[in-house]
Structures are given as structure tokens and as C-alpha cells.
Design brief:
The chain is of the alpha/beta class. It contains 15 helices and 15 strands. Bound molecules: pyridoxal-5'-phosphate. Pyridoxal-5'-phosphate binds next to helix 4.
């Protein structure tokens, strides 16, 4: 970009923000880790909470000025406890990665072994090895062992996991922590099936619900804290209603350790506008979460079936493609994930390329993997249902299979989006979800 005067740069940035908002209002956003917040959550984001400090626990702060911040944070915690039926919650982690790091720090030491899903089988980089710059290995020095994965079932293999743990025991490398959950997350993980076994080895069990927390809150996915998990970490903005942030749910017996790991361990200030936004989002989830989660899963299944019908290979077919907000498509008959992602973007369809089981062995990498991942939480929140999902599949087929002109598809997508501008499943929704708010 050309070097410009401060005033010109200032105008350029503001103008790009506005253009971005318009672009997204005319697009089909299918990134599985994204969602769109309600106007109420956006209001919290621009409140003065954004400019304050409140280190520590509500009622035990390091700074003055927290009278209302404390009240909101207690409310936020109470709502989170109800939503996830959790004895203890810490709403302060500023992201899902920070929440995971707090758990690693509270319950393991550097050098300990962690059992976690590998990235091609759905794991997240925050569970990863040091040589991949994964958070667990790089930042906390954990030594990662991967779960055996069943690519037909698209889930962790229970029997082979038990064998693997027995082998690790013989080698004197019993894991200290077992991590469930992931970023490609089509079906519940076998927490119930493995937790007694893993606890027999004294492992701490964490469930990373970053992607599926909103479905859990809506009662439509597994319930890890009832299935044997000791803690659940999450992002607050993927299937949950935002804003971007993290959270930990657990039991009172682990509360003190988690509290200290979050502050002063992982955070100083904890972004109080986001905390207030979480409180609003949790209230929305308590009221509307069940209906929303049911619709999300119905939409994901419908989109998967429609894409399969259009000639795509959708993973997890044996189990009905998906039981979550996501679906994963093997695109190798039409190109590679990277090229297809770029083509779809030109047609205003926003997806992400995805490593799928078998990619690494076949020599494919993250830039040109064999798959793409689609998530329907945001489209669902905009009020879309099964007939719109079939239309979305048609658009994708148009670009990827029929090689239609991408500009023309973009124009059709823009028309299709016209009726879906407001955020649903919330108490008040006067302002469009992507309206740019100018206050200067
Ligand atoms: C997205 C994700 C995270 C990270 O969350 P952030 O809020 O982006 O830090 C952690 N774990 C899993 C499984 C994820 O998919």
C-alpha cells in the first residue's frame, strides 16, 4: 500500500472498515468459527467498559472504579453457571487459546505428556506440538501424544486409545492430561466412553468446546461436565453468540487453581467490554439457545445432503455427515482446498480450506489441502433455514463444479442476502447485523 499522510491513512482505515461491513452484508459467511453478534452485544463493545481495568476477581479488584463492572461480572458468571450447569466458571480468559493455556498451567507442568487430537484429525493448534509451534508444546512445554483417529467414524478410536495409553504406561509416559474437542468437530467425542479409563491413570480431563459451546448450551450436543470432563474450555463466539473471548467451566474443587492460572497467570486486564458482551450473549442463549441450536444442526445436515447430492464428497457420510454446526467436504475431484477457497471468495462465499485425514500422508499441506470446512451458525443466526441451505449448495456447485462466472454468482449472492440482514435469536434487533455504526 502506498505511504500516505496520517489523515489520509486514518480515512483509508475507516473507509475499509465500512467497505468490509458492506461486503459481509452481501456475502455468504460460512467460516465455522465465526458468528454475528446481536446489536445489544455490539453496544456493550463500544461502552466505556472497553477503557477500564479490573484485574482480579469481582469484589477483590486491584483497582477502584469497578462498582458497575463488578455487578456485571457477577451477573455474567451467574448466567454462565446456569447456561452450562457449572459449579465454577471463570469468564475472564480473553480467548479460547488463553483458556486452554490456563488449564495447562493449572494442572500440568512443562515436560508432562498430553493426549490430544492431531490437527488433520480435527485438533486445534493450541493443543499442538512444539515443532508445529502449537501452544501446548511451545508455550507450556507439554509433550503431545495423539489419539488414534477413525476417519470413517470421524471420531477418536476408543479401543485403540486404550491400547495406546497402556503402551505409554509401559514406556513410563502416562499422560497428565487428556484433551477432547477440536476444530473439525462433526460428532461428539467419546468422553463418556473414556473418562473412567483415563481417570484410572489420574489424568485431568479437559473438553475444548470452542466450536460447539453454543450447541452444548442449547442442549443439542454432548454434555461434557456430566460425562466425566473435569473442565470445559471454550471460545464465546463460534456457536455461542459472541463477542470474541474465552471461558472456563469446571467444578468448585478446581476453582482456586483455575482462578490463579487466569489471573495473574494468563491475563492482566480481561477486556471488560467483552465480559459485558458475554453476559448479554449468555442471557440471549438462555432464552433462545435451544431453538437456535436445533436449527443450526438441521441446517448443517441439510447443506451436507445438498452438497452430497450436487456431487461433492462430504465426510462422515456413514453417520449422516454431521451432528454439529459444521461439515467437511473433500474437494479433491474439483481441485484443492486452497484454490477453491479463493474462487469461492470471489463469488462472495466465504469458507476455509481444511486439512482432512490422509492429507499429510499424501504430501498435501495446509496451503493446498484436500478439504474445505463449512459452518452454518452465522447463516442460522440471520434466520436462514433448510431452503436457503439448498440455495447455498447451488451457489457453491455453480462456482466449483459448473465453473460459472464468479462475478455473476457474487451478484446473485448479494440479491439472496438482501432479506437476511438482521440478527435473530435475540431480544432486540433494530440495527442490521452488519450495519456500520458511525459515531465520530
Ligand atoms: C478456535 C479454537 C480455539 C481458539 O479459540 P480462540 O478464541 O480463537 O483463541 C481453541 N480450541 C479449539 C478447538 C478451537 O477450534
Amino acid at each position: 500500500m502506498a505511504r500516505s499522510s496520517p489523515r489520509t491513512a486514518y480515512n483509508e482505515v475507516l473507509s475499509m472498515l465500512k467497505t468490509h461491513n458492506r461486503w459481509f452484508s452481501e456475502s455468504i459467511p460460512l467460516i465455522a468459527s465465526e458468528n454475528v453478534p446481536s446489536p445489544a452485544v455490539r453496544e456493550a463493545m463500544i461502552s466505556d467498559f472497553a477503557n477500564r481495568y479490573a484485574e482480579g476477581w469481582p469484589g477483590e479488584r486491584v483497582y477502584a472504579g469497578c462498582v458497575y463492572i463488578d455487578k456485571v461480572e457477577f451477573k455474567c458468571m451467574e448466567l454462565a453457571q446456569r447456561l452450562f450447569r457449572a459449579e465454577f466458571v471463570d469468564v475472564r480468559p480473553i480467548s479460547g487459546v488463553v483458556a486452554n493455556l490456563a488449564i495447562y498451567s493449572a494442572f500440568t507442568n512443562p515436560g508432562d505428556v498430553m493426549l490430544a487430537p492431531s490437527i488433520p484429525s480435527g485438533g486445534h493448534i493450541s493443543h499442538g506440538k512444539k515443532e508445529h509451534s502449537g501452544t501446548a508444546g511451545l508455550v507450556h512445554g507439554l509433550d503431545i501424544e495423539f489419539y488414534p483417529f477413525d476417519a470413517e467414524e470421524m471420531s477418536i478410536d476408543v479401543d485403540k486409545t486404550k491400547q495406546k495409553v497402556q503402551e505409554l504406561e509401559k514406556a513410563g509416559r502416562i499422560p497428565k492430561i487428556a484433551m477432547f474437542g477440536g476444530s473439525v468437530f462433526l460428532f461428539p467425542h467419546p468422553v463418556k466412553e473414556l473418562s473412567d479409563f483415563l481417570k484410572g491413570y489420574n489424568m485431568f480431563i479437559n473438553y475444548d468446546g470452542a466450536h460447539v459451546a453454543g450447541l452444548i448450551a442449547g442442549g443439542q450436543f454432548q454434555d461434557p461436565l456430566r460425562e466425566g470432563a473435569d473442565a470445559m474450555t471454550m471460545s464465546t463466539h463460534k456457536t455461542l453468540f459472541g463477542p470474541q473471548g474465552g471461558m472456563i467451566c469446571s467444578f468448585d474443587r478446581y476453582g482456586e487453581d483455575i482462578k490463579k492460572a487466569t489471573f495473574p497467570g494468563m491475563t492482566s486486564n480481561h477486556h471488560l467490554h467483552h465480559m459485558a458482551g458475554k453476559a448479554i450473549a449468555f442471557a440471549e442463549m438462555l432464552e433462545f439457545g435451544r431453538k437456535y441450536a436445533v436449527q443450526v444442526i438441521k441446517n448443517a445436515k441439510t447443506l451436507a445432503e445438498a452438497l452430497s447430492g450436487a456431487g461433492f464428497t462430504v465426510l462422515g457420510e456413514k453417520r449422516g455427515f454431521t451432528q454439529s454446526h459444521q461439515l467437511v467436504v473433500n474437494v479433491l475431484s474439483f481441485g484443492d482446498g486452497g484454490t477453491i477457497e479463493a474462487d469461492l471468495e470471489k463469488a462472495n462465499i466465504i469458507v476455509n480450506r481444511q486439512l482432512i485425514p490422509g492429507d499429510i500422508k499424501a504430501g498435501r499441506n495446509y496451503f493446498h489441502p484436500g478439504g474445505m470446512r463449512l459452518g452454518v451458525s452465522e447463516l442460522t443466526r440471520l434466520g436462514m433455514g433448510p431452503s436457503e441451505m439448498r440455495q447455498v449448495a447451488e451457489f457453491i456447485k455453480g462456482v466449483v463444479v459448473d465453473k460459472k462466472d464468479k462475478k455473476r454468482v457474487a451478484a446473485e449472492v448479494k440479491r439472496f442476502r438482501k432479506k437476511f440482514q438482521k440478527v435473530r435469536y435475540c431480544f432486540e434487533s433494530r440495527t442490521g447485523g452488519y450495519d456500520y455504526i458511525r459515531i465520530r
